[in-house]
Amino acid sequence: MLEKITEDIHKLVVQFPSGMEEVNSYLMKGKEGYTVIDTGTYSDEAKEAWERVLESGIVIEKVVLTHTHQDHIGLAKWFQQDIGVPVYTSLLGYKEMKKHRETNVRDRMDSLVKKHGGPGIPEKMQDDSFIYDFEPDGLFEKNEKIFLGEDLFEAIWTPGHAPDHFCFYNKKAKVMIIGDHLLKGISPVIGLWSGEERNALTEYYNSLELIKSYPSDVAMPGHGDLIYNLTDRVNEVRERHDGRLQGVLDAVKNERKTANDICQEMYGTLHIILFLSPFMATLTRLIYLEALGKVEREVVDGQTMFRAS
């Protein structure tokens, strides 16, 4: 059930029937029990996985979150209110939680997608605002040192994938908990999941450069396999994004298009449930290129369109 990473760190792959369909939770051993990093979605399957862990006799001291996307925070409220385990998140994460408690987050998302030529948000997409409706037991800020188990880690703010994303670094052991900032097999989606425009790709590029300054023997991501050469993986992901950026720029050289037009050209026509991630990746690339002065936007009949400058 648990995979041993080091003497004091174990990994639990929590599975569930939506989204990425699994998340890596890490259990960090301490004198009073284990610190859990991220929880999985709010689902019966994820709850059952954690119930089996608890039934095995493992004591959980606290939950700490890398960021507040659904698959990482989903069971935090359950841990706190049903199991009696305190939950800690960043101050920025708490601000994101408060946004998601509002029912208008879905409306903002719907408006953003339609503004950029998309079909909007599916009506049957679940309202998950309830998972954010609790008060954290503690907050941390960037560069703060926090205990995960018995070891002291630095909280490194790495916005991009999420505005509140944090990695945790132990200098002595050269270990980094990297959440969704980098994954071994795929590139994390850089999206605008609160329905608010921001230059998320610039944030991501800056965060990629930042973590290269933290020498790590092993990086533990939120999904998939461990990363043993962090700098090489940073460079690979950056090159992949640069290639996609060029593809987006090429798509608008001769005519203006919406983000959805470009998304369909690059990724094909996708089911309405599946289109959001590639759509968001396309939109954030356009916003990045706009900030560089390489594309310009124009609103035509209520649709935002882009063309190379």
Automatic annotation (TrEMBL):
InterPro entries: Metallo-B-lactamas, RibonucZ/Hydroxyglut_hydro, Sec-metab_biosynth-thioest
Gene3D superfamilies: Ribonuclease Z/Hydroxyacylglutathione hydrolase-like
Tree of life domain: Bacteria
Record flagged with keyword Magnesium: no
Span of the signal peptide: none
Spans through the membrane: 266-288
Protein keywords: Membrane, Transmembrane, Transmembrane helix
Domain Metallo-beta-lactamase, residue spans: 22-223
Matching SUPFAM superfamilies: Metallo-hydrolase/oxidoreductase (SSF56281)
Annotated protein name in UniProt: MBL fold metallo-hydrolase
Native source species: Halobacillus amylolyticus
